[in-house]
Design a protein that fits this description.
7-stranded mixed beta sheet, alpha/beta
């Protein structure tokens, strides 16, 4: 692009691009900007801007980048005051007193409260404290209104990501809300109301919001009540995973979020009412523009509704755009919709640092930008016909056909525009999104919203009238939900695909821009650019999937559980155990799935279950459905748990072949030999831990031992049976480092260079046990932990060289194992590891 064209780009766009770049830069902890350096860089950019007009875009971009990075780092890495409760987050209970700042509504049993700490009890006396605490409550029996003083013993924790690549950035999500401490309570009975609280500035709004939620939840169907609460109040706390998945498969998840439609309905209705009222005054009609005045006055109810809805990013964007349009019309200046959208994004980033990384910010602005471009393109393709002397029925018929065509085209373009971003964040794309949007949005996004808003705004005037509107809204929501469920149940309604790369995101954006842009030479260039990016992305995919000459282990960080991804030199992929956290949190969908999709995988060759305990198979139902494994290997034991029954159903649906294994079974694949060391054939039923599959992987003179949760008795039998053959370079610590495992005999027999502990951060079992850590340390093993180091990667190359690294520093760069295979006892001599995997070779039981 030439310098003249660069200068023609509005300055606001350069500022916005710089703010977004700085926002995202600060998120990834590249470099911190001290205040003095920030001021110096901004001053230098201003001097550059004054020096040359050609350099002004660069100056604006640089200044906005520095400001955006500096403000965002105050969110992600703030300098907390000395009395902030984050300094007490050591996992020990603390007596905290404060006030409820925010509370979730619409959840029948679970809730999340945000407490503003006021003081804590330390060493027998109360001392002032500050900071917000997010408290998750499993069982709720009381209503907790904002402003209510409370007191409780809380085990404070700093929010922490799992530490896997491509995961949801939970720490940043809470930091954008100024929350740096979390806690958990099994019941709100542990919360003590300290005193009645006096009304405050937001009491009326809080009471109104609570009354609306109570009115909506009075219906018989909890799903309908949860959807209606999300539509009107923006609280999705009552949306179950099943509901969310159905809306996602149908491609209408955006309906559950408060968007420009809601704000537009409030603003439009307010405008009509105020215009009618103001036009009753002859004095106003003679001295001012009543429509302009009515539009400005209607911004007040819009602001009230934005506060009622919680001030979410889509709401802020819609309010900013509406305010910009109102000001433009009031000053009689036509405003480019792209400039209005840019101004809204700029204002949000100024008022909410860090918002550029928020999912709703990205999806909402991308969707609106695509809709603006698609609307302009449709107007060029099918301009409205001027009035002609023809039959009124024919004219109305053409208008109806054109309206349906426009709606379908806009829905298609919106789906294409947001699909790469939904794949980026959720690894799922809906194939029926355009059709579902045409039918579901008018029911849920229009009729239900209008009736729900009528109920909410009439509640302060008449409870009876509000109840009537609420019942009608519930009927509308029920109809929309049935329609959504029907779309979601269709075969191939949605596809789960690998996470797109940055090159693929850029290619899709350029291709869509070339499709919607006006036919100019820039459009032709955009087509060539999109084609080049797509070819580059395709080459990158082929290279990434090309089989390597290494055996790789990914020890995933899944909390207090186990999950190990094994990638063979042939490219085959096994997942040995799959974690599981009790509750509604699906580790497969939220943790393991994004990692596998991020690696570009869409199939698994095998799921391996060492033993049927939830912390080893809890995520497998989702993974069996999403990755359709060819094989399921286990020790033959099953479980009566409902979650295990769900796993068996998913395996049956996907046609996965099952195989039980026992000691002596082995297979060879591309130079790798996998041997089952335990359980013994026909061994009696025993403690599930002692019946775990114990797998030994041998490749290029190196050994890796995956022992499941075996305990002392089994370890002694293995040492007695295999002796020196147990020696391994890498060992995953048995039973998460419990003191019932990792006996001195096993440690001496394996003598590992690396030992991996798969444990949860500050887990209630206090694992790994300090005696186990000390024993491995005395043997000279390097200790790595998933709770501290995140995902741990171990790679054995064909030459026998062993390399490893962790996701978190200081081990986030490849480390080389100093010992060579020849320095250790020879393993696997005389045992063939060549050939291609067909099936296991097992001795007779």
């Amino acid at each position: 692009m030439s310098a003249n064209r660069l200068r023609r780009v509005p300055s606001l766009i350069w500022l916005l691009v710089g703010l977004i770049a700085g926002d995202l830069y600060a998120l990834h902890h590249f470099f911190s900007f001290p205040p003095a350096s920030c001021a110096a860089l901004v001053a230098s950019s201003f001097a550059l801007w004054r020096t040359s007009s050609a350099a002004r875009p660069v100056a604006l971009l640089a200044a906005a980048f520095v400001v955006g990075a500096f403000r965002a780092q105050q969110v992600y890495r703030p300098a907390l005051p000395a009395n902030h409760v984050a300094h007490l987050a050591h996992g020990e209970p603390v007596y905290v007193e404060g006030r409820v700042q925010r509370s979730s509504v619409g959840q029948p049993r679970r809730a999340a409260l945000v407490l503003a700490a006021e003081r804590v009890r330390r060493h027998g006396e109360w001392i002032p404290a500050s900071g917000l605490i997010r408290v998750r409550i499993h069982e709720v029996s009381h209503t907790w209104a904002p402003g209510q003083p409370v007191r409780a013993f809380l085990k404070l924790r700093r929010p922490r990501n799992f530490g896997n690549p491509g995961e949801f950035h939970y720490e940043a999500y809470l930091a954008r809300e100024k929350i740096y401490v979390t806690a958990f309570l099994s019941s709100d009975q542990a919360l003590e109301r300290t005193a009645p609280f006096p009304p405050h500035a937001w009491s009326a709004l809080d009471r109104w919001r609570t009354a609306i939620a109570r009115l909506f939840s009075s219906g018989r169907d909890p799903d309908t009540a949860a959807i209606l609460t999300a539509l009107i109040l923006g609280d999705q706390g009552g949306i179950t995973p099943e509901l969310r998945q159905a809306f996602s498969r149908a491609g209408v998840s955006h309906v559950l979020s408060i968007s420009g439609l809601h704000v537009g309905l409030v603003g439009g209705t307010s405008f009509v009412i105020f215009r009618w009222l103001l036009s009753r005054s002859e004095w106003l009609l003679l001295r001012t523009s009543v429509p302009t005045l009515a539009m400005l006055v209607s911004l007040a109810p819009v602001g009230v509704y934005a506060l009622l809805a919680g001030g979410q990013i889509p709401v802020r964007r819609s309010v900013c755009m509406l305010a910009a349009v109102a000001c433009a019309l009031a000053t009689r200046r036509l405003t480019n919709p792209y400039v209005v959208l840019t101004a809204a994004a700029f204002l949000i980033l100024l008022t909410l640092p860090g918002a550029a990384a928020d999912i709703s910010f990205q999806l909402s602005f991308v969707a609106v930008a695509v809709l603006i471009a698609a609307s302009n393109r449709f107007q060029q393709w099918w301009p409205p016909q001027p009035p002609k002397p023809r039959s009124i029925y024919r004219t109305q018929g053409e208008r109806i056909v054109r309206s349906f065509a426009a709606a379908g085209f806009l829905a298609l373009c919106a789906g294409l525009g947001t699909a790469p971003w939904t794949l980026w964040h959720f690894q799922q794309a809906s194939l029926i999104s355009p059709a579902a949007n045409l039918l579901v949005v008018p029911v849920l996004g229009s009729a239900a919203v209008v009736l729900g808003l009528a109920s909410a705004f009439s509640l302060p005037v008449s409870e009876s009238l509000a109840a009537i509107f609420a019942v009608l809204a519930q009927y509308s929501v029920a109809a929309g939900w049935r329609l959504t469920a029907w779309f979601a149940a269709l075969p191939l309604a949605a596809l789960r695909l690998p996470t797109p790369t940055l090159v693929e995101l850029a290619a899709s954006a350029v291709a869509l821009a070339a499709f919607l842009a006006r036919p100019t030479h820039l459009r032709r260039k955009a087509r060539y650019v999109a084609l080049g990016l797509l070819l580059t992305a395709a080459v990158n995919r082929v290279v990434a999937r090309w089989p390597g000459q290494a055996l790789e282990f990914q020890f995933l960080s899944v909390g207090q559980a186990d999950a190990t991804l094994v990638v063979f030199p042939s490219g085959r992929r096994w997942l040995v155990d799959a974690g599981g956290i009790p509750g509604t949190f699906d580790t497969g969908e939220r943790v393991i799935g994004p990692v596998l999709f991020g690696f570009g995988y869409h199939r698994l060759d095998a799921l391996v279950l060492t033993h049927p305990q939830f912390d080893h198979y809890g995520a497998m139902p989702f993974l069996a459905d999403a990755f359709a494994p060819h094989w399921f290997f286990s020790n033959g034991q099953t479980s009566d748990a409902v979650s295990y029954s769900a796993l068996e159903r998913r395996l049956g649906t996907r046609g996965t072949r099952r195989r039980s294994l026992w000691a002596g079974c082995y297979l060879a694949d591309s130079g790798v030999r996998v041997t089952v060391l335990w359980p013994a054939p026909n061994s009696p039923e025993r403690n599930p831990n002692d019946h775990s599959l114990v797998l030994l992987f041998e490749y290029a003179g190196r050994n890796v031992l995956l022992p499941g949760d075996m305990e002392r008795q089994v370890e002694l039998q293995l040492v007695s049976r295999y002796g020196p053959a147990l020696q391994a370079d890498v060992v995953k610590a048995p039973h998460h480092g419990s003191r019932t495992s990792s006996t001195a005999e096993l440690i001496n027999a394996t003598n590992p260079k690396l030992v991996i502990f798969s444990v949860g951060h500050q887990n209630r079992f206090r694992l790994p046990h300090r005696s186990v850590i000390a024993a491995y340390a005395r043997s000279g093993s390097r200790i790595l932990r998933t709770d501290w180091d995140g995902m741990i990667t171990v790679r054995i190359e064909a030459s026998g060289r062993l390399r490893w690294r962790a996701q978190r520093s200081p081990w986030n760069r490849w480390q080389m194992e100093t010992a060579s295979p020849g320095d250790r006892a020879s393993r696997g001599q005389g045992r063939s590891a060549s050939g291609s995997f067909v099936d296991w070779n097992c001795p007779q039981r």
